[in-house]
């Protein structure tokens, strides 16, 4: 049985105060909070295992290596990758995307086409623009509609034999829209294009099976899924990871080095130059264990309840408009009060101890589409409560009174 009050005890930060008020943390889409199981794993690592991995014959190094490789295996199992060497540790989603974009520099030629969606995070736009500049490839964009959904019929029309890559996020961080990635992947494969799915925003809510999706690349960050910052992963199908050249040169990624020629290490080490975030990788594995112990269906059911409750309560406020009303969405609400700048609303909420995000959420094209400078975004996690939503709704009412 899911008892939110018990879950909350796992998160030390949730009992702190902000500006004299109990913290209400609704900025989960930017980063999730960390349960003590993950914090303990970090303390345990530095207290008992800290050593460099893969290189040492000594006991500490072997223990650290074992823990790190076990974490890779946990991640492989969670996403149902075929091989553990298809899981590459990175510093996060942004790093993973850049790794793939860089690799494709040598595979694309002038006139090739890359398709992205209008719902992307900047980290999923800029690396492709840079790739296009390097190769002469052309960037095409799947448009969105008023509900914040992708216009999928337009996607079909963009696809051609020139399409080499398609990049879409699984869930939009600004609006919470869940994109029809299964369809997007199937259609791309019909024309022989590879697909990268940005899972940073879906990972905390949806358990993804990369083999069932038949996706070519899938990326995420640990800190969106109750893990630490500065670590993430790239899943790539073995055939693709073999085809891509290494991203960075350095230690760990080589097989043999002479001044004449260097040969690269096998997967996954080919893409893991230098000393990685060992502790972070281990803690990432613990975070995945933690989420699975609660269960992703339980999490989704509860978060949907929060979403529905918050949507209904917020819409009772006159002049409040919600952006992103897709039928399939995660527990994210982006909104504005008529005539009031989102930043001002966010500042007043902060005084009340409520953490929300304001601004363009690294997704300026979406804001341009709606012709707004930004939104207030409240994003809910399984450790949030209806009573916290009541606090938010009262806070928004107060902000409205003070600012209009
Ligand atoms: C957070 C996020 C990113 C960026 O993740 P980093 O950890 O900052 O690299 C990319 N895409 C989406 C959809 C996100 O939510």
UniProtKB/TrEMBL annotation:
Biological role: Catalyzes the removal of elemental sulfur and selenium atoms from L-cysteine, L-cystine, L-selenocysteine, and L-selenocystine to produce L-alanine.
CC cofactor: pyridoxal 5'-phosphate
Domain of life: Bacteria
Keywords: Pyridoxal phosphate, Transferase
Entry's family note: Belongs to the class-V pyridoxal-phosphate-dependent aminotransferase family. Csd subfamily.
Protein name: Cysteine desulfurase
Gene3D superfamilies listed in its UniProt record: Aspartate Aminotransferase, domain 1, Type I PLP-dependent aspartate aminotransferase-like (Major domain)
Domain Aminotransferase class V: 24-392
Entry annotated with the keyword Transferase: yes
Annotated catalysed reactions: (sulfur carrier)-H + L-cysteine = (sulfur carrier)-SH + L-alanine
Ranges that cross the membrane: none
EC number from the UniProt entry: 2.8.1.7
Entry annotated with the keyword Transit peptide: no
